[in-house]
Amino acid sequence: MNSTGTKLSTLRVGIIGYGKVGKIRHGCITRHPFLELIGIYDLDVGACQDSGDPKNQSLFLGVTFFTDYRELLNVPSSLLV
Fold it and tell me: Which domains does the chain have, with CATH numbers?
């Protein structure tokens, strides 16, 4: 609940484009208590899955990788950045 007593709900977010800015957005979404990353789309699927350090794999739990941005656009109740 916020200071006015209103219950806050989680906003489901998808990222279109996983270059430098997409990775920064991913970090911000992961750290925010009311955001949930649900999917990532990029033309280069390898860019999404080659996150570098294996200890970062927990950042991708519950995240779907999309090969077509239209599939991500059709996920209900989601905001895309």
Answer: 11-80 (3.40.50.720)
